[in-house]
Predict the 3D structure of the following.
Amino acid sequence: MPELPEVEALAHHLREHAIYRPVARVDLGGMSVLKTFDPPVSDLVGRVVTGAARYGKFLSVEFADCPDAPLHLLTHLSRAGWLRWHSTASLTPPKPGRGPLQLRVHLDAVGGPGFDLTEAGTQKRLAVYLVSDPQQVPGVARLGPDALELGRDSLAELLAGDSRRLKTVLSDQTTMAGIGNAYSDEILHTARLSPYATASRLKDSDVDALAAALHSVLTDAVERSVGQGAATLKSEKRSGLRVHARTGLPCPVCGDTVREVSFAERSFQYCPTCQTGGKPLADRRLSRLVR
């Protein structure tokens, strides 16, 4: 799933390539992807792209025909969604329900440059909203503070009184926005903290380590990602990961074997030596450390 660094890079890519270009046509390839109906996406035609921004893991593209009446096309790419930039596109509108293409925006002219929103697989979770204010999107309205903007003291306030596991807290968008499964693994590994540690029980030194790791991991990932083409962002993300999706491989810090805890629809990875005092975590949802 694209997280804060990748979505930030996609917004940057659109700001470099799409700004000041008028919309020539919008093609809808998947009827269920659009979660709003008023205004219709046809209202984008003739408007000019004026900006692109990130709200947590939501990507927003702004269109305007006058300064006082912008429209925002927001998307949550979910697990299998992606944005693809194209220099040319087919003149023929896509057939609904056929293939991964869910929405296409033609800029300058039909068949010219623009971007596609695509989704692979059978679980269709990609969501698109067209609104006059991003806060009209329920997922955006519920977002906690952006993870990159959290200082040490603000982070400590969020953790205090929260009895959930750190892994859960870091990836809860209503607590802090932008971090998902991959970067929460990376942050916890860098901070040398167990995914199962209780947030409210962290020592001051642990909060210091977590705040430093959160900032360094996300900042480094953004710096690696911004400037990459949309087509190369996924491979760039994988190349920078130290424990996530590296089950069975040696930890690059200590050499121990990276382990995994699997749930029904997801899994996370960690290093026992770096994070749990050498003890493996039992691979079931409500387990404690294996003794």
Remarks:
- The longest strand covers residues 48-55.
- The chain has eight helices and ten strands.
